[in-house]
Amino acid sequence: xxxxxxxxxxxxxxxxxxxxxxxxxxxxxxxxxxxxxxxxxxxxxxxxxxxxxxxxxxxxxxxxxxxxxxxxxxxxxxxxxxxxxxxxxxxxxxxxxxxxxxxxxxxxxxxxxxxxxxxxxxxxxxxxxxxxxxxxxxxxxxxxxxxxxxxxxxxxxxxxxxxxxxxxxxxxxxxxxxxxxxxxxxxxxxxxxxxxxxxxxxxxxxxxxxxxxxxxxxxxxxxxxxxxxxxxxxxxxxxxxxxxxxxxxxxxxxxxxxxxxxxxxxxxxxxxxxxxxxxxxxxxxxxxxxxxxxxxxxxxxxxxxxxxxxxxxxxxxxxxxxxxxxxxxxxxxxxxxxxxxxxxxxxxxxxxxxxxxxxxxxxxxxxxxxxxxxxxxxxxxxxxxxxxxxxxxxxxxxxxxxxxxxxxxxxxxxxxxxxxxxxxxxxxxxxxxxxxxxxxxxxxxxxxxxxxxxxxxxxxxxxxxxxxxxxxxxxxxxxxxxxxxxxxxxxxxxxxxxxxxxxxxxxxxxxxxxxxxxxxxxxxxxxxxxxxxxxxxxxxxxxxxxxxxxxxxxxxxxxx
Length: 560
Fold this sequence. Notes:
By secondary structure, the chain is an alpha/beta fold. Among the domains are: 66 residues, Multidrug-efflux Transporter Regulator, Chain: A, Domain 2, CATH 1.10.1660; 127 residues, ABC-type transport auxiliary lipoprotein component (Rossmann fold, 3-Layer(aba) Sandwich); 117 residues, Alpha Horseshoe (Serine Threonine Protein Phosphatase 5, Tetratricopeptide repeat). Helix content is 57%, strand content 9%. Helix 12 packs antiparallel against helix 13, helix 14 runs parallel beside helix 16 and helix 16 packs parallel to helix 18. The radius of gyration is 28 Å and the shape is elongated.
């Protein structure tokens, strides 16, 4: 028997049976590690594992441990309940392509948790992404690109190759009542070695504190690995109402689904946060994001939604001027509602100062640059968004749209169809593919793509209008009139952008009706009016004085 063998009436034997972990697998599960890792920790780092020699007929001695002793060992290793690193501290992590280290924070596994607690694991993952994005030396992959790996068996090396990152943070969360356990590994994808590992046992009420600790630990390890020198301290967040924070995470969980009903449900949670804590800045930012998303998805009119978005963003910035989400919403309103081009650009740049990894702001800024005819800058900005969020269907579709605006239809079609292949059910990729096909003269194929985008989106008026435009351009006037009737009927129940109706009339080349509806779209502050000076639909109007007047009123140069 070894020095750690179990003996009758020992101190260890007096511990509660509920504190006991039997066999290597149960010990490994408790630590959130593989069995071979735990066995190595016992050999090399004196992990407190006990053995009870069996009878002579037993094949192996029985292995067990006590949770209290394991917890004490973990605390001793780092002073912060973090497990020891599996990698040598002397190893230097070299960025792949630039001075910026690229990192992917994968969704935490909701281990043993119910679907009702999934918002916690997703919320912590998103918070870690946001916190680490504040480091200028890191390029942190956006949530939408890592979301595809959720619920899958992860091969860090494969993830690293697909996302072109240097390191992957992966882990799991276990909740039991109010108790919370988070286990993490930061993996160098070159050789699947562990750069850092940590385990945190806390109360759910301490969620903000533990997120700060994890972010700081990962930031320190990454920056030391990158530079071999000192590290940056991330600012700690002030103590927050635990229930308000849980409600906020629920709001973001539903907002991130981006569907109409989910965004409305998320908005309701953000309002509940404000009722509980009227000075909760992030909740106001969530409200602003919700109204912006509802306008962009044609759920409500710009005049109904964007003043509310502005008020919420302004209040959020009054409470915390460092909130990138609120800065981005402020820029969105200035771009799509005020047509304040200089003001929007200024707010986008201020957003990037706070969070250079905020990919959706990069995408919106690229749209502004394209609208102003600054096409090369627009492409570069959208490419920056793709560096952060390479698997984003939306940003990939925007790449196709930007090529369409500059009349590079072959390249735009290639990009659009590549995005369709990524997910055939994503409506925007069919839409941008249809735009390029139509301009290339492939009207029948364009009609197929526009019909797909309209059906998949639940008959989003913008896509229905483009379907009508292609039908009119193909001489199918009866079908185009059916589209006009559909848009008119839909407008009785909900907001329909006049830009969509103008698009149908543009397809038939009717100058007067197209301009009539564009002027209505101007009065509505319809979102797509920002593209009036670059959209091929309206090339036949460019010499018209009414069209020129519209451009001046919006503040757009006639760049073509």
